[in-house]
Structure formats: C-alpha cells, structure tokens
Design brief:
By secondary structure, the chain is α/β, with parallel strands linked by helices. The chain has a single domain, classed as 3-Layer(aba) Sandwich (Glutaredoxin), CATH 3.40.30.10. The strands form 2 sheets. It has a 5-stranded mixed sheet. The longest helix is centred in the last third of the chain and has 24 residues.
C-alpha cells in the first residue's frame, strides 16, 4: 500500500542537512558552523566500538517510505550485499549538525562501502506525515547551500513515518536515538550500536572495520567448507 505522503527530491536534500532539534526552530544552514557555533569539522565519532546486544527483530522485514512515498524494505538488497542501516536522530525541522555530518561522511566515503559489497541506507524518522509539508521555507533555504546535486546521492535515504521502526527497535528518545546496524547478505543482524547522545555514533572507520571482519569471517567459513569436501 502506498504511503499517504509523497516526498519530493528537494525534501531529500533537506534531509541530508537536517535532523533533530527544537521543532519550533527554523535555522539557516551554514555548512561549517551550527547555530551553537560548533564547527562540524571538530565533530568526532567513535573509531573503537563493540556491538551491543542484538535483539530478535527481523530488521530486513521493516517497512520504510522512499522519496516517492512508496513503501520499501531492505529485502531488495539482501542476498546481494551487506546492509549498513543508519538511523539518524530524526527530522524535526531544524539543523542537527551531528546527523548532517554523519550523512555527509557516509556520502564522501561511499566508494569504500561499495568496495566491501555493502549498501548504506540512511533513515530519517519523522513523527507525522505532515512533517514533510511543514518545512517548505526551510527546504528552499537548504537547497541553495547544497554542494552535491541530489541526483548524485548514491545510497537510499528513507523515512520512518510515525516512528514505527524506531518503536520496533526500542530506540525512541524524543524522536530516535542515533543507531547503526549491519546486516549480512542473509539478513542477519551482525552489528548493532545505539548511541546515548547526539555524538555517540560509530565513525566511518569503525563501520568499515566491522565490514572487513564480516568479510573475513565469511571467507573463513567458505574455506572451511571447501576443506571438508571429499
């Protein structure tokens, strides 16, 4: 069933640069400095992380909303690639520098994920379908500051409308705690990390290391299976 909203490409441009914060605020975007005077180049995510407890949720079955308002899931990638699912804090109409920085770094390092046969999927939780209509003026201000044309964004950006996936994962906090999951090709969750603060997120380096370990494990299993052949 088609979702009740249709999200223009321009809204996705806004999502790349927006995230959590005061819902009443509308803040002009500055590519380097937040409204609190914080420089995104000084933001450091965690290089050393360990997987937290992995629940029984079948993440590959979760339903999201794509940029055209259609329902989509991770099943189209499973069996072909690993999936790095990044859940941002959420979209509330103001700039979250941490969400923007994280998305930007995933974008600039996407080729490294592709080399590891992994697809990145970035999720922006929104509380109501009306949230997509409430920020037209904000979209206009953001689009004029984009360095990368929206058509060149190589990975899917999807919405979690009404926080359904957030609640299934048990990560709600205002909107959502920032969270990252890695699924192997079979759809099994192999890594989970839920941050307790805006800055508490795995770095690109940490995620690539997790993918390398996953690949090495798969290669080891394959070699063992081959060695057992008569």
């Amino acid at each position: 069933m088609k979702a009740s909203i249709r999200i223009p490409l321009l809204f996705v441009a806004m999502l790349l640069l927006a995230g959590c914060g005061d819902k009443s605020a509308t803040v002009p975007f500055d590519p380097s400095v937040s409204r609190y005077g914080e420089d995104h180049r000084l933001i450091q995510f965690k290089d050393k992380v360990q997987s937290q407890t992995i629940g029984d949720e079948s993440i590959g079955d979760f339903i999201f909303t794509d940029i055209n308002g259609n329902e989509t899931s991770l099943k189209e990638y499973l069996g072909k690639k690993s999936v790095v699912l990044v859940v941002t804090r959420g979209f509330a109409g103001s700039v979250c520098l941490y969400c923007a920085t994280q998305t930007s770094r995933l974008l600039s390092n996407y080729s490294q994920f592709a080399k590891r046969d992994a697809e990145v999927v970035v999720v922006f939780p929104i509380e109501t379908p009306e949230d997509s209509r409430r920020h037209r003026d904000f979209v206009v201000s953001v689009k004029n500051n984009l360095d990368t044309p929206i058509e060149k964004i190589p990975f899917p950006i999807v919405l979690d409308v009404q926080l359904k996936v957030v609640d299934q994962l048990g990560i709600r906090k205002d909107l959502s705690k920032p969270a990252t999951y890695i699924l192997d090709r079979q759809g099994q969750t192999r890594f989970a990390y839920v941050g307790e603060s805006l800055a508490d997120r795995p770095s690109v380096k940490a995620l690539l290391e997790q993918l390398d370990m996953l690949k090495q494990e798969a290669a080891g299993d394959s070699g063992t299976a081959g060695g057992n052949d008569p």
